[in-house]
Design a protein that fits this description.
rod-shaped; alpha+beta; about 55% helix; 2 domains
């Protein structure tokens, strides 16, 4: 009977450990989803999912085994009680050792909090590295597409709804097709009204035709980003240079004409969900060209 009790105790302990590991992985998964951590690569995430479901499956089997062993012990104990003919034949029951469950739970909670804080600090460093890589490759991409954009914008004497050159959608689509780029918008000033800007495209599709074709859209300067772009179009790029150094996945590129005058500003909305690990070589090459 003692052997069965030891087996039951061992099964229960192992089940608790497995379920505790699964609970920790669930909490980490929640924080990873809502804080957008980039700590784990896709391969590591698959491995952790495998560990989680393995712990869950083994824990479920452990619960089933514990129930079966527990029922068996209850039946055996009842049988011994019925068979006991005299009180002196009943074995004295040893009191169960007292355990500080509060201390154990508090220790697990502290360990979980420390783990979350440590992973969040690691993720902050990784996010800073990802942001640096994004800005390097965005700058490098603009170095390649910039001359083509200059030629297309030079064909626009003044922005208007239907004055976009035929090759401009192709250039914007080529940039948006990069996985690091979510979308991009081209801004131009209105020569007749400094309180107005024009942006292209007016929607997120570049494949429309006829009335659905992308066009320049006129709008009033209303927020700080619009003011920064308008200021850059007037010749002062200090504000957008400051925004390019901000910790977000946006990049503002000025487009000049042959005389050096700023004709347009291209805003690149980066993809914050991109891993950027595949761009390390590109970023290193871009950094060397910059140096």
């Amino acid at each position: 009977m003692r052997n069965r009790i030891k087996l039951l105790s061992l099964t229960v302990s192992a089940t608790v450990v497995l379920l505790a590991i699964g609970a920790v992985l669930v909490v980490l998964g929640i924080f990873n989803e809502y804080l957008h951590w980039d700590i784990f690569s896709p391969v590591v995430e698959k491995f952790l999912y495998g560990v989680f479901f393995s712990c869950l499956a083994l824990g479920a089997f452990g619960v089933g085994i514990s129930v079966v062993l527990g029922l068996q012990e209850i039946v055996t104990a009842l049988r011994r009680m019925i068979e006991a003919a005299a009180p002196d034949k009943v074995e004295p029951v040893k009191p169960a050792p007292r355990r500080s469950y509060v201390a154990i739970l508090a220790s697990l909670l502290v360990l979980l909090v420390l783990t979350i804080v440590a992973f969040n600090a690691i993720n902050h460093r990784i996010a800073a590295g990802r942001l640096k890589v994004f800005k390097l490759i965005a700058r490098d991409q603009m170095r390649q597409l910039g001359p083509h954009l200059e030629k297309e914008i030079a064909k626009i004497p003044a922005p208007c709804p239907g004055c976009a050159p035929a090759s401009l959608p192709e250039l914007i689509e080529a940039l948006n097709g990069q996985s690091f780029c979510q979308t991009s918008t081209l801004f131009m000033a209105d020569p007749a009204d400094p309180a107005v800007l024009w942006r292209y495209p007016n929607g997120y599709t570049l494949r429309g035709t006829g009335d659905d074709a992308p066009k320049f859209e006129r709008f009033f300067v209303a927020n700080d980003i619009d003011r920064a772009v308008a200021q850059a179009l007037s010749g002062d790029t200090a504000w957008i240079d400051q925004m390019n150094g901000a910790p977000d996945f946006n990049w503002y590129q000025v487009i000049r004409d042959g005389s050096g005058k700023i004709r347009a500003v291209l805003k690149v909305f980066g993809n914050p969900n991109e891993s950027y690990r595949d761009y390390q070589a590109v970023a290193q090459a871009a950094a060397k060209r910059k140096a």
